[in-house]
Amino acid sequence: MKLFITRDVSPSDVCFLIRDELGRDKYTAVMKRRKRSMRGVVNNIVRLNILDENKNLVARLRQLPVAGVNSFTLKTDKTAATLVVLMTNNMVQCRFYGNNWRILGDVISKNFSIVDVDNAQICNHIKHPLGCELEIADAQNELICLMTALCVNMINTVDKREVQVV
């Protein structure tokens, strides 16, 4: 199964549109930003609600700001996982908690695969000029793979602040 992810740059709260192979809208990712203060430190917590074509909430993604690390919590009604992304000068390291998956490939260029402990491919993410293509091997993993792709697409890999997304 293939999904196509594009950014929505309209003034609405929708930040990603997800379409199926036939070009029909399948999911939308709606952003909710919240500032939270803990002991005088203000943290910007980013939440994405994943809605299906009927506008029903099917999954939630939360980005927790930690110094030097992007930590994402991925939740559906059946599964939960955490993706921790550490960016260094020359590479990005990704680690899943809550499942036995790992990311292979180049996360910075947004061309990577997600594999399990047996190296069986779970999904493949390919960057295109107008968006990203996500090829998922098993429909059971669709939402977690989609949320992982959205996490990677939310990571700013551009040095110029004025052209960074999200």
UniProtKB/TrEMBL annotation:
Q: Could you tell me the superkingdom of the organism this chain comes from?
A: Bacteria
Protein name in UniProt: Tubby C 2
Q: Which organism is it from?
A: Ruminococcoides intestinale
